[in-house]
Structure formats: structure tokens, C-alpha cells
Specification:
mainly alpha; 63% helix; elongated
Length: 169
């Protein structure tokens, strides 16, 4: 691109980062990200969100943590998408206790949305944290949000297992 006089923009880098991570080339993606930082194209929360999402998808939580926790230092405020992506990645890796980033959202003037609540409830149910999941379900409903089909299905399955444990034997 640059050879033809077209400098890369943040969206170009975002697509490149996402593609590299999806193809398992995480080391190369990190190099591209650092190259992007050198060109000062990284002052964009969308780029960080895409980078965090891509890294979560390949299970590279070490870099995810570095990126997420470095945002305020860079003058960037995580948005609801950034929080939800990070939360999903932490839950996917079983790091439920660390998923406390969710509870920091309201304090940072970034309220959880329907997708955020559904994400945390799914993660909690998947890791047998049912009482905490039910707490968040109640909070979600109190705030006017509703469970998506995946959460409803998971909770229904959970209720069926608890009500009819003999099916498991």
C-alpha cells in the first residue's frame, strides 16, 4: 500500500490484525500492532477493541491484559464493546474472578448493555457459578434488559438438570 502512496489507516491495520490472529499468526500480529503504534495510528479505541478481540479468540490473555489495562495510560477509555470483548475472553479461559472488569464499568461511566450482561451470565453458567449468574440475571432484568436465546437455553438446561438429576445417571 505504502509503495503506491497510500498510507495505511486504522481500519486497514484492524483488518490485518484480525486476519493474522484468525490464521494463528499471533507473533506477526503483535509485530504489526507495534508497527502501528510507531505510526501513531493506535489512538483509536476501535483498533484496541479489534486487537483485544482477535487476541482473545486465540487465547493470548497475557497480551490482552497488557492492552486492556494500558488504555487509560494512553488516554483511551474502554467502551462497552471493549469491556464486553475482554469479559468474554476472560470467561472463555475460565478466569471468572478476573472478569471483575465488568464491575468496573459503571464506575468508569460506561454502563453494561444487554450483550455485556448476556456475556457474563454465559461465562458464569459455563463455569458452574450459577448463583452469581442468577444475581446478574436479576440485575439485568431490573435494568430493563432481557436474556438472549443462548442464556435462556443454558438456564433452562441448568434447571432441568437440577430438577431431574436422575437423567444424568
Amino acid at each position: 500500500m505504502q509503495a503506491y502512496g497510500q498510507p495505511p489507516n486504522p481500519q486497514t491495520f484492524a483488518v490485518l490484525l484480525d486476519g493474522l490472529c484468525k490464521n494463528g499468526q499471533v507473533v506477526e500480529a503483535i509485530k504489526v500492532f507495534h508497527d502501528m503504534k510507531d505510526k501513531t495510528l493506535s489512538n483509536n479505541i476501535v483498533i484496541y477493541s479489534i486487537s483485544i478481540d482477535s487476541l482473545c479468540n486465540v487465547g493470548n490473555l497475557t497480551v490482552v491484559r497488557e492492552l486492556f489495562y494500558s488504555l487509560p495510560v494512553k488516554g483511551l477509555q474502554p467502551n462497552v464493546r471493549t469491556y464486553t470483548i475482554t469479559l468474554k475472553g476472560l470467561c472463555k479461559e475460565g478466569l471468572i474472578e478476573e472478569a471483575c472488569v465488568f464491575e468496573k464499568m459503571d464506575g468508569s461511566s460506561c454502563s453494561p448493555n444487554n450483550h455485556t450482561y448476556n456475556t457474563i451470565i454465559q461465562g458464569l453458567v459455563q463455569h458452574n457459578e450459577t448463583s452469581k449468574a442468577m444475581e446478574y440475571l436479576e440485575i439485568m432484568v431490573d435494568k430493563g434488559f432481557s436474556a438472549n436465546v443462548i442464556v435462556v437455553s443454558m438456564l433452562f438446561d441448568l434447571l432441568n438438570i437440577q430438577e431431574f438429576p436422575q437423567k444424568l445417571v
